[in-house]
Each structure stands twice: as structure tokens, then as C-alpha cells.
């Protein structure tokens, strides 16, 4: 069960089609496994359609978006059964399995991983999103392994594809969604008996903060 979700503004941007392709993929993968967020996204789709239909007749008030966000947040209290009843066939969503297979192939564990530091292996797939300025990276943290302590020079959006990791913010399981920025410093640890694999979209490279690893910062893209 997913415990970490996109915020309301991210879902609004996704519904409006204003996210970059890599960021939209992260949310799409989460939505395919989270009935609660699917319900929120479907409500936004419906609300957007109504607003478009009434656009010539409606005067936009300053508090409109605040009211929309408040209404969306109220939906967080819905049970999984209630959220599932709101599920609809949204045109911009694809099945999780086909989306991953199209991007990565059948088995993400068999990709040409490159060992980066200690227990961490990476695969930069930015070239699969031509025209995007963000870096798109797959990261694999060996079961029981620790990633170097680091912070971020920009925003980092991550979706857990396999396994789980833990840091000072809690435990992040498969299909959990997390956004970090320059205010966040963490040292993820893979929990469970399998490697933890994540897909991350970065607006800027990470910054290592450990006593010895920070000397490698000039070599980290």
C-alpha cells in the first residue's frame, strides 16, 4: 500500500498536461497503484472539463484555486473503496506494466547498471526523453545497503519501482512518490530482502555531504 503521494499542485499540473514527460511518468506510475490519488486526479479531470465548458461565462476569482485545493484535500479522507468508485478511463494514463516495459524492457534488474559509489548503481536514461532539460536516472541500492549522505542542488522527484528504502522521513515502499529539494539531506538505506530500484527526475545534480565522499562532487553529474 502506498503511503507517500503527489501533492495537490502536482496532480493539478498533471491533469492540465503541463508537466514534463519524465515527471508525468512518475505520477502516472503512482496513480496506477494508488486508488486514492486516482480519485483525486479524476476529480481534477472532471473539474477541468467543466471549467473549460463554462470558460466564457465564468469570472475567475483570486480564491478559486485555494478553494479547489481545499476540496481536493478533503478527498484524502476517502476510503480506498470510495476512491476506486471514481476511477475512469483517463486518456493520458497508460497501464503501469506497459509503460515500464516500453521504457526499460522486461526486467529492470537486467539493465546495464553502472556501479557508482559503494552499494549504489545507476543508469542515466535522460536520452530516452529527448528535448527535456531534466536528468532522468534509475538508481539501484543493494539490499541492506546504504547510499552516501547527500543533499540536492535542485528538485528531485522519485518513484520507487522495486523494494523499499528508509531515511529520516520514513519508509518508502514500491510505488511511493517523494519530492526532495535543497533543504533536504538524507542517507537512504535499502530495507527488505531485495534491491531497491528507483526512478528519479533531477533538475540539478545531487551534492554529496559525507566527510570523504564530498570530494567526489566534481565528478557527480
Automatic annotation (TrEMBL):
Residues 107-199 form the ChrR-like cupin domain. Pfam families: Cupin_7. Coiled coil: none annotated. InterPro entries: Anti-sigma_ChrR (IPR012807), Anti_sigma_zinc_sf (IPR041916), ChrR-like_cupin_dom (IPR025979), RmlC-like_jellyroll (IPR014710), RmlC_Cupin_sf (IPR011051). This is Cupin domain-containing protein. It comes from Marinobacter salinisoli.
